[in-house]
Amino acid sequence: NDYNCVNHFSKCQQITRYTEIIGTLEKASEEHIRPEVKRQLVAEARLCRANMLYFLLHVYGPVAVVMDPEKVTDSNTLSDLRRPSLDQYCQWIYDDMLYAAENLSETAPDPGRWTRDYARFCLMKHCLNEGYHKDGWYQKGLDMYAELNTGKYDLFPDYAEMFKNANKGNCEYIMAVLCTEEADGNPRRGNFNPMLMWSLPSELAPSATFPVGGGWFQANSIDVKWYKTFESADERRSVIVTSYKAKDGTNVGDAHIGIRWNGYIVNKWPQETQTQFQGQDIPLARWADVLLMFAELDTRKNNAVSPEAVAAVDKVRDRAGLEGLPAAKTASVEAFLDAILMERGHEFFFEGFRKIDLIRHNRFAQEMHRYKSVTPPLQYIPLPNFVLQMSELYGVDVEQTYERPEYSQDRNLANPI
Questions:
Q1: What is the radius of gyration, based on Cα positions, of the chain?
Q2: Fewer CB within a 10 Å sphere, N or C end of the chain?
Q3: Does residue 4 carry a pLDDT above 70?
């Protein structure tokens, strides 16, 4: 339904709908629904709402939403489009995620259903992002790590093979969008993974690596400068393709970047079937992320680099075929946090975390300037103009843009005088 939308602000309506559903479930009597079923359904709805709130936060900053079931049809509430405070908005997300982490089922009856572990993962990440301004949240994130660290999950031995069809539901995946090799673009035939079709130049010729040939267009690519930050022994580079043959026979490489292609090809989810519609699951939560989040949470909470935090990062590096971090990168809190940020970039590229990670480290402007030679004037997308026009009609003053207080420092460092 959002394919042709010009913005995501309409998703605020989904928050209202979730709130209405939650209110209806909470009012349901035991005569109509068993208490344990009610708790499960409310927990699922609250995690749905939390994840949509989280998504909107990281697109626009805090936005006006309806969180009280008694006010979903209240005209005064619906016409008040002022932004809530960051603290209040983040607390709503926290409360929903915590409820889900305490009330969802520990195991799912069907693959892809949300569980307590996925809620714990979501809460752990939210606490990491916002712990700098919310007391006790770094510790809560560590508590979620302790609840996840039961031996149920581990790193899959081979990074490149982890994403393939043969290894669906592997030991590293805590949650994923389930896709199928039988998908054909019809929603009735199941989800498909579109990532490669958004990563391939359309002129790419069929080959052993790409038997189907080119994609729709190259919306996604790896910048050459960023590729060069990988250590030469890093096995994660194997899913990045640095040249290709075009349909006209041209060998396309570095000299053609910006002319025939935008940058190197992201091949995490390769062409395994003779169709545009690939069936690899799309990871939402991986154990590698839990390990790196633990290392960062532990360091930020204690303002010190612990052996346990270093060991967690080194375990991820070991799977990538790398030695442990050198002493210079663990000698101080600042150096270690920089190393974690780089490690996250090399581990999770094109899994949807990078901008959020950069903002958490207050490095968004600096890294954009470093690798793309541009300095973004804003951290978040401005609210659509129609929101301001509606607010003016309601007599409400709404701030169109939002940035965290620290962003001016990031921006100044990206453009030193």
A1: 23
A2: C
A3: no
Quote the percentage of the chain above a pLDDT of 90. Answer: 93
What is the rounded average pLDDT for all residues in the chain?
95
H or E stretch at 225:
helix 224-227
CA 260/CA 3 separation, integer angstroms: 27
Over residues 178-183, mean pLDDT: 92
Of residues 158, 277, 271, the one with CA closest to residue 208:
271
C-alpha–C-alpha distance, residues 188 and 78, integer Å: 35
> Tens of pLDDT along 37-85?
999 999 999 999 999 999 999 999 999 999 999 999 999 999 999 999 9
Reported as a pLDDT band with limits 50, 70 and 90, residue 6 is: confident
Q: What are phi and psi of 260, to 5 degrees?
A: -110, -15
Q: Which residues contact 244 (CB under 8 A, 6 or more apart)?
A: 201, 204, 205, 207, 210, 251, 252, 261, 265
The span from the CA of 359 to the CA of 377, in Å, is 13
- Residue pair 120/144 in contact (Cβ under 8 Å)? The answer is yes
Specify whether the CB–CB gap between 103 and 40 falls below 8 A.
yes
Nearest residue to 14 (alpha-carbon basis) of 27, 24, 25, 1: 1
CA dist list (Å): 235 to 149, 238, 321, 415: 26, 6, 6, 34
What is the DSSP code (8-state) at residue 176? E
* Mean pLDDT of the region 404-414: 93
Strand partners, 283: 176
- Whether the CB-CB separation of 292 and 125 falls below 8 Å is answered with no
368-376 — which CB contacts under 8 Å span 24+ positions?
368/414, 369/414, 369/415, 370/225, 370/414, 371/223, 371/225, 371/226, 372/223, 375/411, 375/414, 375/415
What would the pLDDT profile of 366-385 be if each residue is shown by its tens digit? 999 999 999 999 999 999 99
